[in-house]
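seq as requested:
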Amino acid sequence: MGKADVPGRIPSVREIMDDPRLRAAAAGLGRSEAREAARRVQRLLRGGHRPLAEAVADAVAGLPPAPTRHRRVLNATGVLVHTNLGRAPLSRAAVDAVAYLAGTSDLELDLAQNRRGRRGRGALEALHAAVPAAEAVHVVNNNAAAMVLVATALAQGAEIVVSRGELVEIGDGFRLPELLESTGARLREVGTTNRTTAEDYARAIGDNTALLLRVHPSNFAMTGHVSSPSVRELASLDRPLVVDIGSGLLAPHPLLPDEPDAATVLTQGAALVTASGDKLLGGPQAGLLLGDAGLVERLRRHPLARALRTGKLTLAALEATLRGPVPPLRAALSRSVGELGDRAGEMARRLCGAGLDAVAVATEAVVGGGGAPGVALPSAGVSLPAGLGPPLRAGRTPVLGCVHKGRLVLDLRTVEAEDDELLIGAVLDAWGLVVRPSAAAAAAAAGPVTETTGALGETAGALGETVGAVPETAGAVTGIAVKAAGAVARAVAGAGP
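struct tokens:
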């Protein structure tokens, strides 16, 4: 019998960490994580949890899968670009590229000539190839940085002409006019909130005008008595036109006909286009700058560009996104409603078979992240009792859904098909956490249980009492049409740019 196994004695942290399972945890997660697990073992032993081997197993099971306090979350909200969930998920190719270039690489080295090379040339070449209409391209760390660099390098101490209806507020309360004015540029507002013409811009141009700015509205759409000049009209005026398309769409998409894309905007005459890399492009966080070669070179050589430059891992992921297979976000955008309906039906069938009140339902997903405001994407999902929301968020693999009309809806457009089994397992685990306390309380109130026949029905009833207001029959919610375009905006944060 080892010293740590003496009955009644609480082993020291050092002794507990000699367990092979905690040594492995220290090697993979770091000694601080393993030490905390050892302290958890001590707490379990003091609480009467025996034997030692089981306490260690419980503590190890509670360790994170990776040395980070952030956790992977299954996005079942129906919001494709969810800012609170990290926006676009990276493709397998992008993840592999990050791992491959995580060590030393030829990031700024020309191996053939044995001299300094263009930083991130692979990503820049891939971006240029994706948008041939651009004479040159540059990449910074996000789209706000791209706008700051444009304003600083091209308009510091001068005027930027912009429509009043495009002075938007972006995520977390940041306002575009304040961001631009912080660079030393002055804004010359033209037009009105709902209507601006090319003549408004033309009349505002003066000797101190550096550029014209057009901003795609994020997170909202105006309808009714509204109008704005076309890119071609503004490009014909006597100043360079900069267009912030925001969402990162590089070419037209059939499902998003009104969403501006970089190729079209440049073809229509814009001098520069700025965009995000982690929205509809489906890549890492990055600010994309595309357009006139002379202007791009001025941006690249400005001193501020050094402070805004991207790291090697971002450049690796961006290149792999552009060169590799279709990334998850763009695949999710193109999934057929039939495929989603089949998956929802199978998932609901399996969950019902386990005793849950689960119903396959029609839903509507949204792009999110400021992209395609007002556009609903037909989708499908599974409707569950709303009481499953908290335990699903607290699970080992957290799941985030959308609450609509007293039901928790898991929209499958934002869930990879390969994650269906993981999602089903998470729902079953969450259901167990809700049911067990209720079943135990019911059993205590009813007295000793002598027969198990009908236990499943009693358990299902206990679940209904726990979550409250769950319909008696699944048929009560059959055919529910979940309006995620509105419901998600109300129930789930994260459609910021």
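The first helix runs from residue 13 to 16.
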